[in-house]
Amino acid sequence: MAKLILIGAGPGDPELITVKAIKKLHEADVILYDALANNELLSYSKPGCIKQFVGKRYGCHALSQSEINNLILEYAQKFKCVVRLKGGDPFVFGRAWEEIETAQAVGMEIEVVPGISSALAVPASQMIPVTARGTNESFWVVTGTTKRRALSKDIQLAAQSRATVIILMAMSKLEQITEIFSTHGKGETPVAIIQNGTLPDQKMITGQVKDIYFRSQHAGLENPAIIIIGEVVNLATELSVRQQVHQLLHYADK
């Protein structure tokens, strides 16, 4: 029976892939890749490798999860190594466990290659730390949309904490999210939204809970995007201002 390897493709930038992931991609006879996995990563495959797009991102479902599970089993009967290439990390809202259970049921060998999660890498790419000493002691990573397309109830709990809150797949629920945070007295809490993080066409806006929905509408932001709520957003803003001042002083000296 074939081996199933679940590989994290990282947040988008093709250079943010692990060495181990590159090696495993070269072993693949079949690669089933998601919409959020950069297509450049497919160049690491060996000649003759079958590469099939299976979608799986908010608003883009080329195949259902059950169809993907069946594809894994079909290819496992014909080839030795099937790779599932998933955006970010397979175990961070990647539905990897459903595919693992499918493979386990028929006795396939399974391997997981962790990836750099967009929940951490995308804020970092814009100099936003998810934790900073003296500012916060923890961070939440929450999905904005549950299996039933409802807003996660964990948002209510996160809004009551002092933690940085990182919300994935939530642009369609942004107005509801801001209302929840405002209800808990967080109307003036800083917010950043980053679309297509780590990619050349990335866009970022900042604001506060009370106005970020209107700012995002004006900027035309949509998924894939990451919402960061917390005082750490101000640290990046302050750094940007200091850098601009240093540049101005540098030019003035000349």
- The total beta strand count reads 10
| Principal-axis shape | globular
Uncertain stretches of 5 or more adjacent residues: none
Report the structural category.
alpha/beta
The side-by-side strand order for the widest beta sheet comes to 3-2-4-1-5
Mean pLDDT: 92
Major beta sheet summary: 5 strands, parallel
Q: Report the radius of gyration as a whole number of Å.
A: 20 Å
In sequence order, what are the helices and strands, one letter per element? EHEEHEHEHEHEHEEHEH
For the terminal residues, how far apart are their CA atoms? 69 Å
Features:
33% helix; 254 residues; globular; 10 strands; alpha/beta
Question: Your description of this structure?
Answer:
The protein is α/β, with parallel strands linked by helices and 254 residues long. Helix content is 33%, strand content 22%. The chain has eight helices and ten strands. It has helices at 19-27, 65-76, 96-105, 118-125, 154-158, 174-183, 212-219, 232-253; strands spanning 3-8, 30-34, 50-55, 81-86, 109-113, 139-143, 164-168, 190-195, 203-208, 225-229. It has a five-stranded parallel sheet, with helices on both faces. A five-stranded mixed sheet has the order 6-7-10-8-9, with helices on both faces. Strand 8 and strand 9 (203-208) form a beta hairpin. Helix 2 (65-76) packs parallel to helix 3 (96-105). The longest helix is centred in the last third of the chain and has 22 residues, at 232-253. The radius of gyration is 20 Å and the shape is globular. The protein starts with a strand and ends with a helix. The model has no long low-confidence stretch (mean pLDDT 92).
